[in-house]
Amino acid sequence: MFHENIEWYKSKGADDSEINQLQSAINFELPEAYINLLRFSNGGEASLRVQPLYFVLDSIQDALSYFESDASKAFSGYFIFGGNGGGELLAIEQQTSAVVCIDSCNSNTEEVIRIASTFDEFLSYIE
User: Fold this and answer.
1) d(CA 57, CA 47)
2) What share of the chain is helix, strand, coil (3-state, %, to 5)?
3) 80 Cβ contact list (under 8 Å, min separation 6)
4) Taking Cα atoms as reference points, which of 108, 107, 83, 86 lies closest to residue 99?
5) What are the boundaries of each domain within the chain?
6) Which of 40, 63, 70, 125 would you label with 56, given CA atoms 20 to 30 Å apart?
7) Can you give the pLDDT of all 127 residues of the chain as single tens digits?
8) Which fold has domain 9-123?
């Protein structure tokens, strides 16, 4: 999935039943590039060339747990799929499929930072 120079800390990829569980639990279509990343590695981490500079991909179970939690209500309209391990969340904006960075301590979604227009673009920032 990534070129050989990327240091991706890989987990075992998700199977079809896990992918189906995720897709049936949410009320919008996830980008195909995100689904393909989960098939490759259901969790993992690598450096990014953009804010938040490090990417920790949540496993499907972790993403679903967050999606179904009360905490996610503060960020309605966004699907949290990871973070940087230090308080910044990475999310897919449900309306546009853009990838954004959210300060987990600030529920003001007007301060969300768009870092990629598409998930494919976001993947291109992984180092």
Assistant:
1) 11
2) 30, 25, 40
3) 58, 63, 66, 67, 72, 89, 90, 91, 102
4) 83
5) 9-123
6) 70
7) 776 778 899 999 999 999 999 999 998 899 999 999 999 999 999 999 999 999 999 999 999 999 999 888 888 899 999 999 999 999 999 999 999 999 888 766 678 999 999 999 999 999 9
8) SMI1/KNR4-like (3.40.1580)
